[in-house]
Every structure is written in C-alpha cells, then in structure tokens.
Fold:
Amino acid sequence: MANVSIFQGVVACMFYADQKPPHFHAEHLGNEAKFDFDGNMIAGDIKSVSMENIIKRWAKSRRKELIENWHRVIDLKPLKKIPPI
Structure:
C-alpha cells in the first residue's frame, strides 16, 4: 500500500497488487472504501455523506494524477504524491 494523499482526515492510497477496475482506497475515522477516479464509491463505506462528497470532489479534481499513479502501480513504479484539496 502506498499513500498518495492525505486531506481533511482522509488517507488516500493505492495497492500494488490490486485488481481492476482502476480505483483508490480512502480511509476516514476507521471507515474504508474504494472509489473510482470520478469519485464514485464502488465498495466499502465512509459513513459520512459530507466526507464522501469531499472525497468525490478531490478525486474529480485530481483524476489525471490518479490515472497516472494507476499506471505506475501496474508498472510497479513508485507512486507520486497528489496534492490535497
């Protein structure tokens, strides 16, 4: 697992051995979920609608960087940090 960003109490990360579809993991207050690069939750639960919306806004604004890191995961290269909101 590699952290790619930390913002407003959320830790966003990617796993090198992860499967498609492209996604990132987000953890907030012990709750975990997977999100696609448009910010849609595809598994898990964050338990806070407002925090889910913040994660969605971050993902949409950082979509290009998320895609770039996904390709780095596939190639087993170090991930780049992505700025917070």
